[in-house]
Design goal:
This protein has 360 residues and is α+β, with helices and mostly antiparallel strands. The protein is built from 10 helices and 20 strands. The chain binds adenosine-5'-diphosphate and magnesium ion.
Length: 360
């Protein structure tokens, strides 16, 4: 029988009356890079700590290769965790820090030393073995923490916002190294991050959590192009989300009417929808274009420009419809210049119907 590498079934964690993780189900395949995202306090760290064995589950099962591991102690789980504060021992050398997990497992001194040296080498720290932790840079410490976990050759590595204490440049460099390590070693990474760019550039699968539950789990492309819920679309940002009602045309076709009455959209994918149904229509900021003329056709929304923000070669425009709904548009700076528009100007926003993503 084949099993997911790790399965969480109905996993739950409560602190008194507060629910931190709420009957969560998740399957994780072996050798994949999984990114976990969600607002602060949604249960990401609690989930990871239950996997690591640092926290008992209040209910449900944690399965590893089909075997229930809820009651296994930390050192028998083989799922070490790296986090931002690293928890390196300042009174031990770099090598002794890396040897620590092997010492706990009863490996003899000679083998400990040679295995630690191998991993320090793989992480570019071969020449730093005898240094103290306080003689290392932030990025080097991060690598020591990784070496200390990897030296025990786990099949899963848990990472809780490991790069959030590094500066932007170093963080990007470490992202590349982490991804390379994960590919080379073929081990499963479960990686909690608040950074969209980290999640979307590194992960094979992205999991979006909200209030202790999973809103959506899928490939980065799936999540980006087809958010399953308004929460996911909103959390990712960069989209306008319209409340709409499904209406029939005289010929029987369906059309979306925005609840605020500001537009109708001849959305193409109306299969499965019924007249009267409420849906959310998500349109990404880069899929909306604007013209300075008034328009009242389908997929055209008369708006006023209420704000602009210049980001490199791009301009983010905030528009407001007559009914007060906000729309976000992203344009090339040169297109904005050729339109010659200012805050306060009236414009028409429009999009191709096939670009609108409908969430029932
Ligand atoms: P995240 O990592 O997504 O920011 P956490 O998993 O740390 O969220 O926390 C989830 C929820 O559980 C939060 O509401 C938090 O306040 C609560 N929580 C976490 N740890 C404890 C604890 N030891 N005692 C009580 N509540 C806790
Ligand atoms: Mg956390």
């Amino acid at each position: 029988m084949s099993h997911a590498h790790i399965s969480l079934k109905n996993l739950r964690k409560t602190y008194g009356a507060a629910v931190a993780v709420d009957n969560l189900d998740l399957d994780i395949e072996e050798g994949k890079f999984i990114a976990i995202m969600g607002p602060s306090g949604c249960g990401k760290s609690t989930m990871l700590r239950m996997l690591a064995g640092l926290e008992d589950a209040s209910g449900g099962d944690i399965l590893h290769q089909g075997r229930r591991i809820n009651d296994l102690p930390i050192w028998e789980r083989q799922m070490p965790m790296v986090w931002q504060s690293l928890a390196l021992f300042p009174f031990l050398s770099v090598r002794e820090n890396v040897e620590f997990g092997l010492r706990m497992a009863g490996v003899n001194a000679a083998e400990r030393k040679s295995r630690a040296q191998v991993w320090l080498g793989k992480l570019g720290l071969g020449d730093y073995a005898e240094r103290g932790i306080d003689q290392l840079s932030g990025g080097q410490r991060q690598r020591v923490a990784l070496a200390r976990c990897l030296v025990t050759e786990p099949s899963v590595l848990l990472l809780d916002e490991p790069l959030s204490a590094l500066d932007a440049h170093l963080s990007v460099q470490m992202q590349g190294e982490l991804k390379r390590l994960q590919r080379e070693l073929g081990i499963t990474f479960i990686y909690v991050t608040h950074s969209h760019s980290e999640a979307f550039s590194m992960a094979d699968k992205v999991v979006i959590m909200n209030k202790g539950r999973i809103e959506q789990a899928g490939s980065p492309e799936d999540i980006y192009l087809r958010p399953a819920t308004p929460f996911v679309a909103e959390f990712l940002g960069g989209s306008s989300i319209f409340d709409c009602t499904v209406r029939p045309r005289k010929n029987g076709d369906l059309v979306l009417e925005s609840t605020d009455g500001s537009f109708r959209s001849n959305a193409v994918k109306t299969g499965g929808l019924v007249p009267g149904q409420h849906v959310s229509l998500v349109v990404r900021a880069d899929q909306i274009s604007i013209t300075p003329t008034a328009g009242w056709a389908e997929n055209e929304v008369p708006c006023q420009i209420i704000g602009e923000e210049f980001v490199g070669a791009l301009v983010n425009l905030r528009l407001r419809t007559g009914a007060g709904t906000e729309i976000t548009v992203q344009l090339q700076q040169r297109d904005m210049q050729s339109l010659d528009l200012e805050v306060g100007a009236g414009v028409t926003a429009s999009w191709h119907p096939e670009d609108g993503h409908i969430i029932p």
